[in-house]
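User: Please predict the structure of the protein below. I'd like the answer in structure-token form so I can feed it into my own downstream comparison script.

Assistant: Understood. Taking the following sequence of 370 residues as input:
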Amino acid sequence: MVILSTADFDAEVWTNKQHLAHGLARRADVAYVESFGLRAPRLTRADVARVRRRLSGGGAPSSSAQRDVAPTRVEVIRPRVVPFHGSRAVRALNRRLVDRLDVRGLEDAVLWTFSPLTYGLESRARAVVYHSVDLLHTQPGVPAAALLEAEADLVGRADRVLASSTGVAQHLRELGAPEVRLWENVADTDLYSSVHAVREPRAVFAGNLTPTKIDAELMLAVVERGVPLAVAGPVQIDGTSVPPALRAVLAHPGVTYLGTLRPPELALELARSTVGLIPYVQNPYTAGVFPLKVHEYLAAGLAVVATELPSLMSTERPGVATVSRTGYAAAVEQAVHAFDAAEAAERSRWAGAHSWGARIDQAEELLRGL
């Protein structure tokens, strides 16, 4: 199997792509083709380091900077392409570069692509799965027209089309996908449900602190109501600058910034908390987001307070409250004080059905069907 990702395998925070590769590689050989770099690089420290690492070959990849994983049969391939995909001339050059990419066994394998821009890899594979987990064309700095053109072609070629949220599914149908399967994001629920600690009346946020997703002003409003807040996750992961509101959050005396944690460390911090925050902004990108942290929070027994994301409002989930921006901080304060251990246990049991173990079984069944 070959996975074409939109993220590097040893990224600080693992998402669907790395989890899928790691899970399937327990039973089969997996080639993991790292990101083509859909967003044009900027002159920032993070982007310059990323480009230098790719040009130098980057050395042997670690399993991840932040996790302990058992060795699996994952071969990591780091393609060298020009990350300015909006230019037709560059895309023509990149297609030639990808044609030369040594992906052993691709002709007899399934290509499972998270990227709409494949540069013809799908034409070399035995079968194709397109797994869309974001409305990528809405992100800043990406070549939206080129991505949409490639995506419209891909949904017509793919043998299976998967979407991580109702918003993404609707987008794919509008592009002409004949059938879209909804696979909402899951979590390592066994880990997050197994760690226990003395609860503190505090809120917690875990995830990438990305300005295009996170409403830092809402987090600030929460702590200014006297609610202690723990924050875990990387800053500037997408090369953007830190906005003033986020700086104010991280510097607030009521906030404990934990940095980027390994999963067992994060599980402990969630077990010490009572409410998990999903304070996302409302924009075209988040219209297609189903946050990975939903089932992590629930598995840890947390009550969840989220802004009104379409993906979370489409289905009722125990312990998840979707709240307007104006009422968000008050809802978090109320949830912190209303925490109930019996309800926490029920949330954790419910989340167990949304595990990576179950998702890998589902993926293997899909692959057998191909």
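That's the full token string. DSSP finds 15 helices and 13 strands in the chain.
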